Amino acid sequence: xxxITCKDITKKFGNYTALNSVSLSIPKGEIFGLLGPNxxxxxxxxxxxxxxxxxxSGELLFxxxxxxxxxxxxxxxxxxxxxxxKKMKVGEQAIYLAKLxxxxxxxxxxxxxxxxxxxxxxxxxDKKVEEFSKGMxxxxxxxxxxxxxPKLLILxxxxxxxxxxxxxxxxxxxxxxxxxxxxxxxxxxxxxxVEELCDSIALINKSNLVxxxxxxxxxxxxxxxxxxxxxxxxxxxxxxxxxxxxxxxGDYKGNRRAVLDVKPGATSAxxxxxxxxxxxxxxxxxxxxxxxxxxxxxxxxx
Length: 302
Known about the structure:
By secondary structure, this protein is of the alpha/beta class. The protein is 31% helix and 31% strand.
């Protein structure tokens, strides 16, 4: 079941087409990566999902039915451009934002106190936002984004400005939210985070949907069916009857490394079964391209 379904979404600003007939589905309970270079159309799509703007044509479904204005209360949105009121006290501001999402003061206070303890910021309640660094303010904004327990959480570059310790803290909370059933849209340029966190992705480039699907499936789709073999010895690898062809072979950190092209239909068990007859194998792995390489390939058409 999908929480968001986009059917032929098109959005224009004057003569500029920001989204060109984009269709994609976001399954419930997943972390879904929304990828693309700057200006590709990601933010426009996020704004449409949030009902900040409307599409010129196409249909947006939320939880299997046409989206309606009240659905915004079930969405949490952390934009890349952070936006807290600097002169307001943290607790007062957080409660105000919670009430905009339909929470009562009592509900908001209870949830916020728990989050403040979890993040170790109990002493921040009566401080003003202007007293904090960018990273500290982002902690507060993350909390105000998730405190109403949204069905759908949209995070636009959520790790920007955080040190490694706080990146790990936010990543842990994102995974905990997913485990609790929240669907998360992660918009980021950090492909390492995509591989670590995302179940599925959609890549938008120049207003068009380029590819969408499971991360593992896409990585394999854009692979070249090569495997890497690390082995001990002084001589080039013996291929014997292995169903492969040699791509390269050479010294590698005190051992040797061969890259092999696998023939159609061959399995790893067949290949290894032949290779171990004439070689002292240290390791064997498929060479699956990284998301960063796939992103560059698809965006630059190389």
